[in-house]
């Protein structure tokens, strides 16, 4: 019987208005490769952030035991010292430094402040050889592939003698061959006695390499089993097995026959690398009054699809876009807006709002022509127009002069929606419309979506929350690696089907 | 609401207080000479050139860029005007138009490289600074070019007669009253709450007083200096552009969040070019006034002035990260810089000390601003 290396007991973590983790328990045995699975937003990443000290000790309830001792991590450095290393989905490497420098970043071998480069390269090479990784140490990170970067991250994590290595969706961006290599390395680590926690959506990988598996759903532990007791179907059931209660308002809007947006054979190539196809032969349409959900894993190309149609994403593009029966060429967002499209971006702080400006200024930003005459703005008209939306979509604020950075996430999202709606779009793109906002605000946004559909707006919603896609969409398409792999109507769709196609399980 | 407004205005208060402190200190140290009408007129004139450049610079900084070329652009445009008038006998109006045109071209040049070729503004305008410096020296053949026509020199040297000063002051007051009334009417039309009539009246009386006292004080010497008048008009126009026009809103938005501006359908590239055109154009205007005031174009004209313009913006609370700035505040910033120059010369402080003091004031001004902001968070 193996002993327990890590135990997380009754972890509860609350954000304002949201209980992200509710009494989660995780027990990992020494030397195991332990899978942590659950749909997006289930709380996997939050749990790992608690473990690695991103959320400091005492900002959560419950306790963490490492080798039987209570751990109190205040920073990620504390957790590193205790032997916990984490590799995030977004890699944390310095692109302009070479492989060896990155491996020992912050802890270069030195004597009296002078780096002993020979020692650095010697030690780095030793680490690589141990794992059987072949990378040129003197190459810059930006010059090696994403798969190799992933390996460098792992080597870097091991350079501090980690006992517990957490891999957050390490294979999401890798090719088949790279995945195979990574699997091989995880096996080697296991042989050396390193405990790995693998967060993954790819259940075939989980089945292949892991010893045990914990499923999380809605911030709670569903169960931990030996892999030998499980199969993919069972895991999917555990992940999705929630009762869908009335979390979504009933849709009363009638789908009209009028096709508002039609995309035919859209292909898109990367701006940086013209040989890399981001979107492959995408075709779909949305009718007036219809809500089309786009589901898929991170990196499947959903945001890229919206951004390409909206004229924001640069790079070679082929295919046809037809808006309300008229073939159009959209080269800039300005053009898209003029043609009656609206986009609410997934990243409201970075791509959406001017945080230092007021609600009014943000709301009117895309419709300044409407509130001006000959280029001169009418401040009262701006407030008047904005107030309409403050009332109709329920932005909670004492005044429209408040800076948007002082608002809650849900209200910020509504300001962004207000900006979009002020342009009276015929086709509305919503990219993760309810990310990071509380349950109440979510319901309000769903209601608003239904109202817009009832007014004849065609809505395309990208969402990583499967229940949301299923609860809100008239039709669902699933994307995988830049392609649409399947389409279901409201009646046919299920979480199991989406998950199967999203993870590339069915390629026919 | 009142609390919010107060927070918003904290930096403005700090700036005005520091201006009062600076004036008081120099007044004492100079035995009151600082406040002599003649010196105040001088001070106002000294402020103009930096203030005009700083107006343009504010737009550039708000848009998230910087323009290091304005000093040399000022010298170059002034030289263009002088060469055309003194050597080629051009009349005043065409010489001025040509100089302004040079400024606009310079702005298009910078805007092109920054917006369409993605060169950092720091580098693009550093290049422009060297190019204009070379052009200035080459065109002027390294000598002073003088004298200008009387009509040209007036732009920098003339004073507006006392009675016209009063007329202009009165027009300003009437315009202000009309705008207050229109503002109230518009608010009522949209069913908004209006501020109590008393507040509007008090505000109007206050500003009227300030305008009339300024006119009276300047009239005690020779009247409002012509360049000051030009500066005030430019400040008024560009303050309007910044606050009340789509163009201004677009510039603030793209400095506040470039991606959000693009996704909202703002032509970010074109607006970036316009920002540099405003900056270079105003630098050329400053150059014309400098040439007029000196009645000559000199090879060293404008050297280092870009830094004064940037300092005026920063003292005036313009955020170096973009998205925040106000023209009245920038003018006060320029006034602070000019008051330091003027006061230190009055008390015969040695030049090297003047640099050190200005450097310290700049640092402390920004520190005070940062402190007040982080506290109000």
Automatic annotation (TrEMBL), chain B:
This is Xylose transport system permease protein XylH. GO terms for cellular component: plasma membrane. Its main location: membrane. PANTHER family: ABC TRANSPORTER PERMEASE PROTEIN YPHD-RELATED-RELATED, XYLOSE TRANSPORT SYSTEM PERMEASE PROTEIN XYLH. It is a multi-pass membrane protein. Keywords: Cell inner membrane, Cell membrane, Membrane, Sugar transport, Transmembrane, Transmembrane helix, Transport. It is found in: Cell membrane. InterPro entries: ABC_transp_permease. The chain crosses the membrane at residues 12-36, 42-63, 94-114, 121-139, 159-182, 194-218, 224-242, 273-294, 309-340. The lineage of its organism: Bacteria, Pseudomonadati, Spirochaetota, Spirochaetia, Spirochaetales. GO terms for molecular function: transmembrane transporter activity. Part of the binding-protein-dependent transport system for D-xylose. Probably responsible for the translocation of the substrate across the membrane.
